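From the shared-data thread, chain only:
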Amino acid sequence: NTDALLKVTIVPRTSQALGFAQYTPTDKRLFSTEKLFGRMCMALGGRVAESITFRVITGAQNDLHKVTKIAYSQVRTYGMNESMGPILFPDEDRNSREFGGRPYSKRLAITMDDETRNIIASAYKRTESILLQHRHMLEKMAEELLLKETLNLNFDVKALVGSPPHGQKQLIEPLQFEAEINEQAGIAPGRSQQQSPPLPED
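Structure, as tokens:
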């Protein structure tokens, strides 16, 4: 249920991004629970790899924001959660405008928070399990990145870790994976969640 890696680099793309990975397409608009779960696992890959390797986990704020938004959307917007059922609540700003406040109780809000945390925790554990199982591949790719800075699927990744185990997958052009994840997470185009908040005035 995941997309194929196209490229990974440690060359900073912007002042906020320390590196990035490119995956697959933007032409799909319907996603199953399994597909969204896989995409959350992919987005968590950098955070989990940092935690396993360095115990330094400050470089994945943007990815965590996207994963949290996708998980909340499954629970609150897409009707993809068994405990919540097929129900939709718009985001907080729209709730305030349309209903004069939240149209659900504190108890239901707690349930949504708990279900969202469970989804993210499951995705994190799955990602951690995969990376621990294949840690030698993670280390091999990291060492190669230090030498080349950028790895491409056909020329580098396949030579290091082999072809995708479930058959060939579709590939896309640069930055489309991030754009699609942002769309699913409800993040406006061009907006970066890694920008530091303004410092308080004296």
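The first helix runs from residue 33 to 53.
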